[in-house]
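ok trying this again, last paste got cut off
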Amino acid sequence: MSYYRELREVLRVHPRLRRCLKRCGHCGIYFLTHPCNAAREDLRCPFGCRGRGRKRSSNQRSVEYYRTDEGKTKKRELNAKRSRRMSEKKKKDQAQRDAERLARIKARAEEKILDHIRMVTSQIEGRPVSREEIEAMLAEKMAEKMRQHSLNAAKGIGYIAPEEGEGPP
């Protein structure tokens, strides 16, 4: 639970941020929000719940629309048009578009997390922090992590395969 240990330490050093501490309405994780949202109780965490909630609401709106007579007619037309157009080449193109779309979704998620880190860091330091500073800080931390040796390697403990006949039957 390193995340909570760090969060407690930040709140101990910067008690003014305690009012920005919120609990996610979906998963229950505690996170820091922007001071303008401090009074809200319906927040979701930026670690995925916020996006899932937005997508769930969008799906609900679509379902409600496509259950109406107008929506059923439109959906029928869209499905007919799609089935006429889908050839083998188009299916391959669709797979490539799906892969590109997935890459864009992942990039957007990373951007949202970076924006959240920037906002929290700005609150902690009491000054505006640029995105470039955050990226440099994270790159430095990743470089430190890459230099760290594994504890198992230091102890010399490895996996030893059992001899034949040893172990359960």
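PB: full thing came through this time. The chain has a mean pLDDT of 82.
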